[in-house]
Design brief:
The chain is of the alpha/beta class. Helices cover about 30% and strands about 20% of the residues. A hairpin with a 4-residue loop joins strand 5 and strand 6.
């Protein structure tokens, strides 16, 4: 008899929590913060009317807020695009391993703040990093690779564009031929300016869609920057690029970035396309300072 009563009480408690969670106000999240590389949600909950004391009401409201936050986190993570064709949800459907990793990641989401509300409700703020060697979305969905492909060589039939810096002014070429461990071909003598710390691709007005594994292509369709060209552990730890709407926030590209303008986007709007001349310039400068290898890339959108 005691067992039956205990089971009935557990069922009633779960039902109360479900009612409380459904009554929670939904945090209007637009998805991941692609600039900071975090996914943050705010779950709210209220206590069921059957609560027998103020303390129990607060505990049940908190539990409802946590349930609400987990639900929101799961919805956002499943909708994240790993690449232009694949969402996290697609990967979870086709891979039990990915499903297990993502589920564990959500259950381990960090509560960064919480508070009781004046109306008797409760709010919990939860956060998951998109990138990091462990306990991140990237570590759950990106597959480490053992082989890194070299960056392509510049197309010899097209002259590289004149390099443009952050100020918008053209930089004059020097005779730099630096080799800093990049997998790219060495920068041709007399063509690399050198000293560029990163790359900013201006995609404003083109409707670029953020993805975890973007590919930069030239307008002949050739990929010049992608996951296969990089150390997978570096990508998992840092991501391949950040997405910002304000160029002043493009700090990932360093203090002296090379700036190029995208001419279009392709592959379901997830991959920026730049001219062959600009692609040649990017590859030449990367040969001198290796900023692509370090994933010092920012997409301005």
């Amino acid at each position: 008899m005691k067992v039956r009563i205990t089971k009935m009480l557990s069922v009633l408690m779960m039902a109360a929590l479900m009612v409380a969670a459904s009554a929670a106000s939904v945090f209007a999240s637009e998805g991941p913060d692609w600039s900071s590389g975090t996914i943050t949600v705010e779950g709210t909950g209220v206590a069921p009317t059957s609560a027998m004391s103020g303390i129990q009401a607060r505990m049940l409201a908190r539990r409802a807020a946590v349930v609400d936050a987990y639900r929101q986190m799961a919805e956002i993570i499943k909708g994240v695009n790993v690449d232009s064709d694949t969402t996290v949800e697609n990967m979870m459907v086709t891979s039990d391993v990915t499903k297990t990793h993502v589920s564990a990641l959500i259950r381990g989401a960090k509560i960064v703040s919480e508070k009781a509300l004046d109306d008797g409700g409760y709010m919990v703020t939860m956060e998951i990093p998109m990138y990091g060697a462990s306990n991140s979305l990237a570590s759950a969905v990106l597959t480490p690779s053992t082989v890194k492909e070299s960056f392509p060589e510049p197309q010899a039939s097209v002259a590289p564009s004149q390099p443009v810096g952050l100020s918008g002014t053209t930089m004059l070429p020097s005779t730099t031929e630096g080799k800093l461990g990049s997998s790219a071909a060495a920068a041709p003598a007399g063509k690399a300016v050198g000293g560029f710390t990163g790359l900013i691709v201006d995609c404003r007005g083109l409707g670029l869609k953020p993805v975890m594994s973007p590919v930069i292509r030239n307008d002949n369709g050739q990929p010049i920057y992608g996951y296969k060209n990089l150390d997978s552990q570096t990508v998992i730890a840092n991501g391949m690029a950040s997405y910002v709407s304000d160029i002043s926030r493009a700090t990932r590209a360093g203090s002296n970035p090379l700036v190029v303008k995208a001419v279009s986007v392709t592959n379901h709007s997830g991959d920026p396309v730049i001219s062959v001349a600009d692609a040649n310039r990017v590859l030449i400068e990367n040969g001198a300072t290796g900023f692509l290898d370090r994933t010092n890339v920012v997409f301005l959108r």
